[in-house]
Amino acid sequence: MARMTSSARPHLNRRLAAFGTTIFAEMSALAVATGAINLGQGFPDTDGPEEIREAAVRALRDGRGNQYPPGPGVPELRTAIAAHQRRRYGLSYDPDTEVLVTAGATEAIAASLLALVEPGDEVVALEPYYDSYAASIAMAGGTRVPVTLRPHDGSFRLDLDELRAAVTGRTRLLLVNTPHNPTGTVLTRAELAAIAELAVERDLLVVTDEVYEHLVFDGAEHLPLAAFPGMRERTVSIGSAGKTFSFTGWKVGWVTAAPALVSAVRAVKQFLTYVASGPFQYAVAEALALPDSHFEGFRRSMLARRDILAEGLTAAGFEVFRPAGTYFVTTDIRPLGEKDGFAFCRALPERAGVVAIPNAVFYDDREAGAPFVRFAFCKREEVLREAAERLRRM
Fold first, then answer.
1. Which of 35, 45, 220, 234 has its CA 20 to 30 A from that of 197?
2. Rounded Cα–Cα distance for residues 354 and 383 (Å)
3. How far is CA 97 from CA 82, 178, 239, 267, in A?
């Protein structure tokens, strides 16, 4: 009998069969092909502070990080991360046992979920969600259980009763993102307290994606879940230099957590990138030590850009959900007579010379996200004004 060849089975692991090329790659390619303004992918169009860039140059020239850095990250950066958490939030972490440097927040998310989730475990995630969440849960063999943030009075809100109902005897972990991408929601103290109470009551682990921690507006406040009662020992907190300092290509992220959780995440991380971004780690260590005035100036700059784009989108006829955090604006296209975000975004570069992202890619329930479209405002003010004018003319 002839032996069946391996070509009879699809090459891609079945767990990842639903994940093709990301929408970000597709829309960025459309931007290049059409010459459109790219407000889709979330990367700034200018570099961060010169002093931080020069710190990386010094590290390169001094031979710091040009060879493999230590597996947990260079001591200077781990110390700076711990100092940042203590100064900003009153959270005390041991740089040697409770801090892990990763290749951006994306690796931190993947390593955390691969470490903490086993096949059959349920992971409750706020929907819409950053697309790597779904892929990482799938790679771990877990089951994704979405709890949908729904529009209410100009913003997207969490239904705490729905969250509680989503937790079952199979739930292993809550995956929380605040400030929230793509909706711009910042969870309130009361909401976070309720999540903490639920996690303690049901003995759940929590992974919190806090990469936009320094981008909160209109009186909103970023509050780390790890600071709430009962959460210090069960929470993996994830941060990133890319969003805070506008050096997304450096790929420097981190995890802070209790020693047992960091050890688990590190056990996976060592078989992903092992280490990365050596010289940039030294530069980020200096960046985290910048005075509070730097972070406040960055926040004010992004607030001004948010308002330029939000006002332009409103003038163009979109319903705009003005974000309380992140550097994304979610809009509803139905006032324009549209209802399919995918079709709208694929046609937009030719129609208006602007690229955006359909929020439906961040939903399990594509219909729930169908009329929503996300625009990034981490661009120069003149670029945002031009994009707004193009959309108004459309």
1. 220
2. 11
3. 11, 25, 17, 13
* pLDDT reading at 329 higher than 60: yes
SS3 390: helix
Average pLDDT over residues 287-307: 97
Token duo for residue 156: 């997207």
Model pLDDT, residue 81: 98
DSSP code at position 40: S
Alpha-carbon gap, residue 30 to 263, rounded angstroms: 42
Residue 226 CB partners (closer than 8 Å, separation 6+): 91, 208, 232, 235, 237, 256, 257
Residue 14 pLDDT more than 90?
no
Q: Are 305 and 378 in contact (CB under 8 A)?
A: yes
Rounded CA-CA distance 394/385 in Å is 14
CA distance 51 to 144: 42
Give the CA distances from residue 87 to residues 84, 117, 290, 377, in Å, rounded to whole numbers and listed in that order: 5, 32, 12, 28
Helices 341-352/381-393 angle, 10° precision? 100
Sheet containing 372-376: give its strands across.
319-321, 328-332, 372-376, 357-358
Contacts of residue 328, defined as CB under 8 A and 6 or more positions apart, other chains included, come to 42, 181, 182, 184, 374, 375, 376, 377
Tokens of 34: 């059409």
For 180-194, give the secondary structure using H, E and C: CCCCCCCCCHHHHHH
| Structure tokens given for 360 | 């439906």
Separation between Cα atoms, residue 147 and residue 153, nearest integer Å: 19
Cα(24)–Cα(36) distance, rounded to whole angstroms?
Answer: 14
For the chain, what's the residue count?
Answer: 394
Contacts of 259 (CB under 8 A, 6+ apart): 94, 97, 98
Give Cα 285 distance to the centre of its chain.
21
Question: What's the alpha-carbon Rg for the chain, to the nearest Å?
Answer: 21
Q: What is the DSSP letter of 124?
A: E
Integer CA distances (angstroms), 66 to 46, 51, 62, 165, 281, in order: 25, 20, 9, 50, 11
pLDDT at 389: 97
Mean pLDDT calculated for residue range 349-356: 96
| Residue 124 token pair | 């409750």
pLDDT score recorded for residue 133: 96
